[in-house]
Amino acid sequence: MRPTVLRDSRPFHEKSTPKHSTALLDSVSPNHSTTMKTPIRVLGPTAAFILMALGAWCGPHAVPPQSNSFEPIGTYAGPGAVEAEVVGPGRTMGSERLYLSYMYVEHTLDLVAIDPSTGQVQAFANPAPGEYGAVMVWGPDGDLYLGTRPHAHILRFNPHTEAFTDLGQPAPQQSYIWQLTVGSDGNIYGCTYPSSKMVRLDLASGRLTDLGRMDPKQQYGRWIAASNDGFVYEAIGTAQAHIVAYQIDTGEHRDILPTVAGMLGRVKWSSEGRTPYIYKGSDGRVYARLGSQYFEVHDWTMHPIAAADAGRAPVTNRLADGRIITVENDQIVIKDPNTHAVERRPYTYAGREQDVVRLTSCGGRLYGSSALPFHLFSVDVSASKVSDVGELGHGEAYSLLPLDGKIYIAAYGATDGTPLMSYDPSASFAPGSQTESNPLFVDYEASDTGWRPQAMIAGPDGRLYVGSVAGYGSVSGPLTIWNPRTNEVRQVRGIVPDQSIVTLAMVGGVIVGGTSIYGGGGSHPTQREAKLFIWDASAGRKTFEIAPVSGATRMTDFLPLTGDRLMGIALGGPLAGDEPSVSSQHGKLFVFDVRTHKIDYILPFGFSTPIYNSVALGPSGRIWGLAEEGIFTFDPTRRTVRLVAEAPRQVTAGFALQGRSIFFASGPTVYRYEIPGS
């Protein structure tokens, strides 16, 4: 079993939306199951940070007085997500290495080389600080080329001199290079996001060229392959599928999917949206896949073929003698497919810090999810100890709900594409789909591994309700209803047409939901205002809908108040294209009366963006919550909202409240904020 190979990802801030809540942007390859145990580096308590102390918030630019109520508890670290793995030459003539690109989202990348004869591991410093990824391809000159994110650089590694250099940006306005290939002219070609461009590196001159946008509307140039006779093909999505043929000699390009347009209506698309896949087989021919239908691609045409007739993609981790080398857990594993002999050696790569996505509290202990890959970890606050529980896929958990001694998890990109799972902290970690598994994976018909399940609550009927940002290419996120006793799951679609459900609360025996006009990666909003709706669980229907704050484009932090009232925060404003205008990013806190269906009052939320669904009722009847800047409170009696303490670093993830302790994360580090005594 090898570590998860993540061939498709995006910056973590776009996934968890602590900084922005625009369209969620990425596309993911099929998941590879793994239970790799990750080393954890723990940072114990240090001297308290000198911050601004508790005081009234007077406006967007007001600064709280000094405070020393923040304490770092621990930092999560370990090997990141493997973006690509390829076998190639080592430093000396005739030697080989397995090269792995490890991605640390929003931080860096590591290029790691493993000598199969000795097990020696080398890690090479990133020549483009702040770039991560990366996809890799061997050039005909014997060098290894890497494409990065978030500024779409191309890097070059010489395996003989071990020189690792940054060649620059072929298209400065692009964020990702999703894949690289070698054209029949011996040059390197890549596909990009967010303008589905094609780029080229001329190996003879070193010139980088932006070849232009291959589709005028779609964002994702997701896959790329080159034929032996002068064509480069780019597979584009996610809202609409396109396969564009680019002729190297003439520079002409056009969409060739219309040549099989009659078949498209019969294609069943995956949860990645309407994104085709294209690759060069080991037989030298180019093949495409639309859903389950395969095609052979040649010149300007596509011909449908049976899956059995499609050539296999080349194996990139095969040694010259035919053995397969990979990394499994903390071991280097070399398997001989002919003799079935297996060699194992220790794997000494320790990794780096990884961002925390979500936190919760269960049984007096904190639990959290890391991002890319998705590890579940626990935090013993009293001992300042972070402990790995295990790996659960290549994505991350967006919702962790403690209930009756278990943690219910809704995740993106989890093992085997599982969207839901339940974990018992008192039992051994043994993930799977069997009754005795822990976590127990729960899948269901029409599940979408590309969703972002930002909201999960226990409903009045004993069921769990999950709200999510829609999957790739879609703007409509369903309400998912999960019976934890039977693990029966059903979905209700179209509650608010063309919107995602991103926050939920139970108030007065009904469920109140809030939406976002934004959908999955590659989609474009069709609506102008986010909505609040009431769902009657007993009747199984929506009974009310309103736009609680005029012009707002998304909601968050729904929480029940006394007297059948609800608080929420509305963000965004009038759209400029597909994004809210910059001037309208500060939000508004509102209180809604569920019985009268009226807005009681609206208050300015004049500081930074709140961390999604990170509020709770704390001491003295006040609501405590997280914003990027730090800790805020809402006093429903006095009708005041205040930023009471600035965090030592930007807050990126939440949220757990134990007594007077608020726990959150800034990047990879878990912090505790102690609420002052009244």
| Class by SSE composition | mainly beta
CATH class of the domain at 463-606: Mainly Beta
Separation of the first and last Cα atoms: 54 Å
Q: Provide the gyration radius in Å.
A: 25 Å
Going by CATH, the homologous superfamily of the domain at 463-606 would be YVTN repeat-like/Quinoprotein amine dehydrogenase
Give the overall shape, derived from the CA principal axes.
globular
User: Low-confidence parts, pLDDT < 50 over ≥5 residues?
Assistant: 1-63, 580-584
Q: In which range does the helix fraction lie?
A: under 10%
**Beta strand %:** over 45%
Describe the largest sheet: 4 strands, antiparallel
Q: Tally the helices: what do you get?
A: 2
CATH topology of the domain at 463-606: Methylamine Dehydrogenase, Chain H
Structure description:
The protein is mainly β and 678 residues long. It has a domain at 463-606: 7 Propeller (Methylamine Dehydrogenase, Chain H), CATH 2.130.10.10. Strand 56 and strand 57 (669-674) form a beta hairpin. The chain is globular, with a radius of gyration of 25 Å. The chain starts with 11 loop residues before the first helix and ends with a strand.
